[in-house]
Amino acid sequence: MDHFLYEALPMRVRFGDNSLEELPAELGALGASTALVLTTPQQADLGEQVNGLLGRAGAGVYPHAAMHVPVATVTAAREHAARVGADALICAGGGSTTGLGKAIALDSDLPIIAVPTTYAGSEMTPIWGMTEESVKRTGRNLRVLPRSVVYDPTLTVGLPVGISVTSGLNAVAHAVEALYAPDASPVLSLMAAEGVAKMLKALPRIAGDPADATGRSDALYAAWLCGAVLGATTMGLHHKLCHILGGTFDLPHAETHAIVLPYVMAFNLQSSPDALRAMEKATGSDSPATAVRKLERSLDVPPSLAAIGMPEDGIDEVVRQAVDAPYSNPRPVTESDLVGLLEAAFCGSEPE
Ligand code: NAD
After folding, report:
1. Whose alpha carbon is nearest atom 32 of ligand 1?
2. pLDDT tens-digit profile of 138-181?
């Protein structure tokens, strides 16, 4: 076995149907007494439910989380948290809501309990991001890592099938890149492979019946594993491209990840035998990229970057930015590799 360094991030997880009811106990375990609940406007009802559960420890709902974590929202939310005397934050929602909590925690040290309702995985990482005047700043800081995460699959039943599928593939992308990361290790690879296998089996079940309890439970369990390996390793070409595509053309986060994933898998896995073996096993196919693409087509994932609004003349700009920014990757990437990969993802041709 190769040399490796394994460093676990602290994590405390409660998992299971109706585990939301254990939230007051989690708040107590933190030693906190007054929690502000953060949600998006679309999930304000969930916020009220959570606030109600907390009884006297509920400091109300702040339902203004938004995509890309605008700095103005962070400032207003931090001031609101101080006004209501919050000594903890509860982020109930997807990556955008967790992102708001993290941005507040960065400057306030308020501890976070996350209640994830998508499969994005932000709750397992010390990565924060904020946007001001269209420029997104990101960083890593253990202060923003949620102290506790409550995974309650019943809260994901209302996540529309289309978002469930692309969000699940967003999680799979974390695991794929963790398998060939420079800081991969055997334990993380076990988690990543299990995350991929469980998620790929769960998504068709959810598409068949959005209330399928096993599908929802397996997908959220997989999201935990995929988020954990995202938080513990260094991502490569796939995350770099999706970051540039999302930032440059304002493309939807999870759909962009889902569409690009099979093309990066086809490009990278051949240079990483261990990751290839793990993905062959997880997909049950000797061509994991083709298997993922086939699954995506059967689950109605948009077929191409063109289909989600990327302009054709944008490829050169993405290549320029990707060439300018160093990132780790198991295979060297030339400008012409990037053009080929992006053209294929743009048109939705078969990954090679
Ligand atoms: P999101 O949080 O933007 O949510 C999308 C929409 O779905 C929102 O309107 C939300 O209210 C709604 N929604 C969420 N859960 C729902 C549910 N169960 N039922 C009904 N509606 C629900 O989307 P996301 O994909 O979870 O997060 C994407 C963002 O997270 C991106 O900005 C991305 O950069 C960030 N992210 C950060 C990290 C990190 O480590 N920092 C990791 C992954 C993603």
Report:
1. 68
2. 999 999 999 999 999 999 999 999 999 999 999 999 999 999 99
Question: Ligand 1 mean position to 118 CA, how many Å?
Answer: 6
Same domain, 97 and 124: yes
Ligand 1 neighbour 40 (Cβ under 6 A): yes
Would the pLDDT of 98 be above 90? yes
Indicate the number of domains in the chain.
Answer: 2
As a whole number of angstroms, the distance between CA 283 and CA 199 comes to: 10
Atom 20, ligand 1: which residue's CA is nearest? 159
| Rounded Cα–Cα distance for residues 297 and 25 (Å) | 43
CA of 120 to the centre of ligand 1 (A): 6
> Tokens at residue 255, please?
């759909």
Q: What is the CATH number of the domain that holds 96?
A: 3.40.50.1970
Question: Cα(253) to centroid of ligand 1, in Å?
Answer: 9
The whole model's pTM is what? 0.97
Whole-number Å distance, alpha carbon 195 to ligand 1 midpoint, is 19
- Nearest residue (by CA) to ligand 1, atom 30, is 95
What is the Å distance from ligand 1's center to 119 Cα? 8
pLDDT number for residue 47: 98
Number of H-type helices and E-type strands within the chain = 13, 8
Q: Are residues 260 and 292 in the same domain?
A: yes
Neighbours of 208 (CB within 10 A): 10
Q: Is 166 in the pocket of ligand 1 (CB under 6 A)?
A: no
Tell me the C-alpha distance between 266 and 173, whole Å: 13
ipTM of the shown complex? 0.99
Percent pLDDT > 90 in the chain is: 94
Question: Cβ distance 232 to 208 under 8 Å?
Answer: no
**Residues 290, 170 share a domain:** yes
Nearest CA to ligand 1 atom 22: 159
Q: For 204-245, write each residue's pLDDT tens digit.
A: 999 999 999 999 999 999 999 999 999 999 999 999 999 999
Task: Residue 175: give the domain boundaries.
Answer: 161-347
